[in-house]
Design brief:
- The chain is an alpha/beta fold.
- The protein has two domains: 75 residues, Beta Barrel (OB fold (Dihydrolipoamide Acetyltransferase, E2P)); 257 residues, Rossmann fold, CATH 3.40.50.
- β9, α6 and β10 form a beta-alpha-beta unit.
- α8 packs parallel to α9 and α9 runs parallel beside α10.
- The chain is globular, with a radius of gyration of 21 Å.
């Protein structure tokens, strides 16, 4: 059940496109549960407008009160005394966050009234042809800036479109990474697919989202990753990143060049995520049923040898036709240290888990080199 709280906005703590973070003083509760105080609360401006200091706000505090890392802050459900105005001209009829109290209606790129409908139903797009578009797929949202760093190391002017799936956060506005990367010009645009929303374009499915990235946004490279907030249970199949394998299936089915970015860690305290994570082993080894490439950072050190052995074992046992591709790492560290957003995965920065970001950057570099080779 959702745990409701109400409170009063005390201060604005930060803002980025589509979101404002507040300090909210909780109102006293009759049950004296001990959770009164000031909390961090996030408002999505497209949903609830922009509350002002002194406004009363209603909050969903469930994840905050449970102390969760994923979604572990309060969310503004409404500012009842400052409701936003209706949009001037409602557009579209595709509903996302369907059948929830905060469902929203969007103009999807693939719906009949979209100005891009003709492109999406054209001869190339309707045939499902990505025209060899390199599609980098990763498990964790934290891989996004590292993948882009790898692309920009060799092709700084490549048009890269982020396709956000709905395994984590649904609003793209939750991602400070996306906001910072867009502002810095590292991303050409975003497509939100499935139940995810708030991108430059909305798409009903991952398949139509990939086609929109190519034929509407003219992407040179697409990067497919869930939004922030990966869910895992410590079981083989109970994690949202399993969809990375399905994303490769979609990309290759549509005529794209699938690239599987390995989830690697040299610092995770959980054995199942050390070296090549069991998430990559399952998603790429058992869910992916198509031919795709697995870039491997050619580090030449002992840890790299362990990762290489694990990657080759994954490929040998894979259901699809995976191929390991060695990628040189010269210059990647400098690019990683120059990202316009802080690198962080599971609370660890670049120096805290260098391998996690290096292998993602290697996948980006591999995509860039496909462009250079005209593959």
């Amino acid at each position: 059940m959702m745990q409701w709280r109400d409170g009063t906005v005390q201060a604005v703590l930060g803002r980025w496109p589509g979101a404002v973070e507040y300090a909210v003083r909780l109102a006293p509760r009759p049950d004296a549960s001990g959770d009164e105080g000031t909390v961090r609360a996030l408002a999505y401006t497209a949903l609830v407008g922009e509350p002002q200091v002194g406004d009363r706000v209603l909050l969903n505090a469930s994840a905050l009160l449970r102390g969760l890392g994923t979604g572990g802050l309060a969310f503004v459900v409404a500012a009842p005394d400052r409701l936003p105005a209706d949009p001037a001209v409602p557009a579209g009829h595709i509903i996302k966050a369907r059948y929830t109290p905060q469902q929203q209606m969007f103009m999807a790129v693939d719906e009949q009234d979209s100005p891009h409908h003709a492109v999406m139903t054209g001869a190339v797009a309707s045939a499902g042809d990505l025209e060899g578009l390199p599609v980098v797929v990763a498990d964790l949202h934290s891989a996004l800036p590292a993948v882009l760093a790898g692309i920009r190391a060799d092709r700084p002017r490549a048009r890269v479109v982020y396709v956000m799936t709905d395994g984590g956060a649904l609003p793209v506005a939750f991602s400070r990474n996306v906001a910072g990367l867009r502002e810095a010009g590292w991303l050409a645009g975003t497509v939100t697919v499935g139940q995810a929303y708030g991108g430059d374009h909305e798409a009903v499915t991952l398949h139509s989202g990939l086609l929109a990235a190519r034929h509407v946004m003219r992407a040179d490279v697409a990067v497919v990753i869930q939004g922030p907030g990966n869910v895992g249970t410590g079981t083989t199949w109970g994690y949202t990143g399993v969809a990375a394998g399905e994303a490769l299936n979609a990309a290759v089915t549509l005529g794209g060049h699938g690239i599987a970015a390995l989830r690697v860690s040299g610092a995770d305290p959980r054995e199942r995520h050390r070296g090549v994570s069991h998430h990559s082993v399952t998603a790429y080894g058992r869910v992916c049923l198509v031919a795709a490439d697995v870039p491997l950072a050619a580090t030449g050190d002992e840890f790299g040898a362990v990762v290489a052995e694990q990657a080759h074992a994954l490929v040998r046992e894979a259901a699809g036709a995976l191929t390991v591709r060695q990628v040189p790492v010269d210059g990647l560290e400098g690019m990683l240290r120059s990202t316009p957003v802080p690198l962080s995965t599971m609370g660890r920065d670049l120096d805290g888990d260098y391998a996690a970001f290096l292998y993602s950057a290697a996948a980006g570099r591999y995509a860039a080199r496909l462009l250079s080779e005209g593959v």
